[in-house]
Each structure stands twice: as C-alpha cells, then as structure tokens.
Specification:
Blueprint (H helix, E strand, L loop, with lengths): L40 H12 L5 H4 L5 H6 L4 E4 L3 E2 L9 E2 L9 H12 L3 E6 L10 H14 L4 E5 L9 H7 L4 E3 L9 H4 L5 H14 L4 E8 L5 H13 L4 E6 L16 H13 L4 E4 L9 H19 L1
Parallel strand pairs: 1-4, 2-3, 4-5, 5-6, 6-7, 7-8, 8-9
Helix pairs in contact: 4-5, 5-6
C-alpha cells in the first residue's frame, strides 16, 4: 500500500521477495490470530455504500483481518488514487503496475460516503503514486477539503505514502490540516532491503519529523509489523527513533503473509510480547500505543483518536 520500488512499476510476480520458494515453510496461525468470516447486516450495508460509489478500501485490498468487525460498525478506510500501486513491497497485497489517471470526482464520492455512513472519524490512505509529480499530495488535500465541506464534524486521519523525491508534497497535505498525519515505517531498518525496498527508513522518519516542524499541534502516528524476522532490540531502537521525531502514536501488529509469493512470516509474536512492547513504548513517552496481534493502523482509529486527544490534554494540564 504505502511503500515500493523507485521509478518503474514492476509486476508483482517479478518482485524478488514475492517469488515463491518451494522449500519455504508456511507457519500455522495460532488461535489468537484467527477471526471469523464477515457475515453481518452492517458489513453488507457498508459494502453496498462502498461499491455503489465505486470506491476502494484498504480493508479489502490489503485483506485486513478486522474487516468484519469494522464494516459491521460502518467503519472503513478509504484508499484513494486507484487500486494499482507503483511499488512492489514484499509484504503488501495491493496490486503493482501502471496506475490510471486520477479521478477528479473521487473526493466528492468519498465525502458523500463519509456523510452517509455518519463517520465521526475517517482514515484516508492511498497507493503509492510515484508517477505523479506531487505523489498525489494535491489529491489528498482535495479529499480532505471535500470531507470537511460534506461532514464538518468528522475528524480526518491521513495515512500517506512517503512522497520520496516529491519536493513540496508533504507541505500540501499538512496545509490541508488533517487531524492526524500517519505514515507507517512498516518494519525495522535492517529489513528495508527485503521488505520495503523502494522506501528509505530515515526518509520516512524525517517525513514524520517534518510534519511536527510544519505544524507542532498536528498529531503524528506511525506503525510497524512484527514477525518479519526483526529482533526485539531493533524494535526498541525504532521506538527511540520515533520519539526523536516526536511521533505521538505508535501501532504494532502481527504481519500476516497474504500469499506464498509474499515475504514469509518468520514468527508469530505472542500477546504477552505485544503487551511488553506496549509497556515499554509508554515509558518512552508515546501519548498513545496500540500493540496486539490484530492491531492495524486504522483499527479502532476513531476511539483511539479520542483517547489520543485526551492524553495530550492530560499532559498539558500536568505540565501547566
């Protein structure tokens, strides 16, 4: 979704990490990672709203395990700028190729869906669009503006690409004043070459730091997956890097292999280990931490935003 190869779109099956190795062991999912198939009325109603407006959601494209729970509550994460990504990350299930031109009517349709669903908080993400001069920053801003006009009470969280080599793009999105700016680093630095080859670890950190420089009041958020072969001390170092960039909100979830062609799951991290990561992260100064096997960047995003805002207010009162 938001990570990739640099200039030329590469078909997914040609990506070196996505070529299936016959001897690759596929680990069996433990009980704590299993979820029920979605069948509720609320799920069906959300699906109809999304499909009738010809919208794309990361819930479907990334095969999110929480789709049944979220769509039942009429929560959805909209993925703008098409369903074809210009990069080919080893963990991601979104299709790679040459994207279509931007749809000028998409901001209106997204805003209409947000209004009809009555969302108090919405997450807007996108594929990577390395083919566009601004990486799609202006389109993000137009979607934010359309939602503000159609549903003024809705708080807006953006989960953006890294805008690598797109000078001025970040400034355009920040100027549109989303309530939360999220950009996921996805994994620890040592795994970038195999997991996120088109991205740059320190560029992504700098992106988050720059948001705070442009607007210190804006909440920043980032997340990683574990189970990709990282070491615990690398995760702790990443937490320190995040805090150096003044990131407010950290999410940590279990990586799930979309297919045998993708990067393998090296290990299923236990709920107890996730709880330990959460405890350590709070001691390092994050305002908000979500760490569990099924944690995803936009899972419970609305409730988490309320808690995030309350945590900042409590901190300000304490320091007054």
């Amino acid at each position: 979704m938001v990570t990739l190869l640099d200039t030329i779109a590469t078909p997914r099956l040609r990506h070196p990490e996505k070529a299936h190795r016959p001897d690759q062991e596929v680990l069996r999912k433990p009980d704590w990672i299993r979820v029920k198939a979605p069948t509720s009325k609320g799920y069906a109603e959300t699906r109809e709203i999304v499909k009738s407006r010809k919208l794309v959601t990361v819930c479907e494209e990334a095969g999110c395990p929480n789709i049944g729970e979220c769509w039942d509550k009429k929560h959805a994460t909209f993925m703008i700028m098409g369903e074809i990504c210009t990069r080919a990350c080893a963990f991601c299930n979104v299709a790679t190729g040459i994207p279509s031109a931007l749809d000028a009517d998409e901001p209106r349709r997204v805003a209409d869906a947000v209004r009809q669903m009555g969302l108090s908080h919405v997450v807007i993400t996108s594929v990577d669009r390395d083919d566009l001069a601004d990486g799609g920053a202006r389109h993000f801003a137009e979607v934010i503006g359309a939602i503000r006009a159609a549903s003024p009470g809705t708080t807006i969280e953006v989960l953006t690409p890294d805008f690598l080599r797109k000078d001025g793009a970040l400034e355009v999105v920040v100027a549109a004043r989303p309530d939360v700016f999220n950009h996921n680093l996805e994994t620890v630095a040592s795994k970038y070459l195999t997991v996120r080859p088109g991205a740059r670890y320190f560029h992504s950190l700098r992106l988050l730091q720059r948001v705070k420089e442009l607007d210190p009041s804006m909440f920043t958020k980032s997340g990683i997956m574990v189970g990709l072969g990282e070491e615990r001390n690398e995760v702790l170092q990443l937490m320190d890097d995040f805090r150096s960039a003044q990131v407010d909100f950290l999410t940590i979830g279990q990586y799930l292999q979309p297919s045998k062609k993708h990067h393998p799951v090296k290990r299923f991290v236990t709920p107890e280990e996730f709880k330990s990561y959460e405890t350590v992260a709070y001691t390092k100064g994050f305002l908000m931490v979500s760490a569990s096997p099924l944690t995803r960047s936009s899972h419970h995003a609305g409730d988490d935003f309320v808690r995030l805002r309350a945590a900042r207010e409590a901190l300000l009162l304490k320091s007054a």
